Amino acid sequence: MAVIPFRKQPDPWSFEPVRSSATLSSRIVDEVREALFDKRLKAGDFLGTEKDLAERAGASRIVARDALRTLQALGVVEIKVGSGGGARIAGGNPALFAEALAVQLTLAGISVREMMDAQRAIEITAAELAAENATPEDLLKLRDLLAEHEATIDDSAAYTRSCMRFHLAVAEASHNRVLVAQLLSLQHVSWPAQNRTLTDPVARHILEVHRQLVDVIESRDAAAARRLMDDHVRMIRARRVSEDQADAPHCC
Ligand SMILES: [Zn+2]
Fold it and tell me: Which residues have a Cβ under 8 Å from the Cβ of 37 and sit 6 or more positions away?
């Protein structure tokens, strides 16, 4: 089967000589992915139709279709059918794949401690950057969420959801989309739907900490935002670890 050697081609992406026993379909997927990471391809670039891809790869249309389906499932391409259709490099949807990562973390049996340590690293940096980068709209959103906290403080489930949105809003105010996607992913795994250790004093303490966080973000005090978030996530970590231990099966 003819294979187009990549480096002899002027195209932004093509096919290297056979390197392994991988199927041609998975090699097409690899080459497109590598071209993306090397910035030879970017969001919006047109890859062509299934027929074009088959011709370029020297493969059958079945192989090209299989590769395109995999690339679509990976979120790398968007496929439009019909006349004028074909595959195009996708615009990217980190939120969607944050959920996919959450599924994988759950399947891998990630411990509460591992998750909370990662969450702490992400949220400390997010709070620091929020103090540097928050816009007036971000601050308005954070203040609205504080009002929502007050309105829902007697409803444990609603209050928990409001708190989750608050932490995500702090990450969004950092204007770092990597941090947002990572936090979103961890929230899928670690944020409880029902917060069993949420007593009234704990809820009021959280509200007070969130208020202080918004104040220091608004006053652009990055060091204080970092410190406050660090203490806060340590507290959350301690509660989650104790909840996890309470769930553990007892022996003897
Ligand atoms: Zn909080």
Answer: none
Spatial separation of the C-alpha atoms in residues 19 and 4, rounded to whole Å: 13
For the sheet containing 46-48, what is the strand order? 46-48, 86-89, 77-80
Residue 162 C-alpha to ligand 1 middle, in angstroms? 9
Contact 14, 4 (CB under 8 A): yes
Helices 136-152 and 156-173 pack at an angle, to 10 degrees, of 170
Find the 201 Cα to ligand 1 centroid distance in Å: 14
Q: What is the pTM of this model?
A: 0.80
- Which listed CATH number (3.30.565.10, 3.40.50.12780, 3.10.150.10, 1.10.10.10) goes with 6-89? 1.10.10.10
| Distance (Å) from CA 92 to ligand 1 centroid | 29
Helix/strand/coil percent split, the chain, to 5? 65, 5, 30
Please tell me the distance from the alpha carbon of residue 184 to that of residue 171, in angstroms, as a whole number: 9
For the cut 70, the answer to whether the pLDDT of residue 88 exceeds it is yes
Cα(210) to centroid(ligand 1), Å: 6
Write the pLDDT tens digit of every residue in 200-214: 999 999 999 999 999
Q: Cα(104) to centroid of ligand 1, in Å? A: 25
> Topology of domain 95-247, per CATH?
Four Helix Bundle (Hemerythrin (Met), subunit A) (1.20.120)
Per-residue pLDDT tens for 103-115? 899 899 999 899 9
* Contact (CB, 8 A) for 44 and 92: no
Within the chain, all domains assigned CATH 1.10.10.10 are found at 6-89
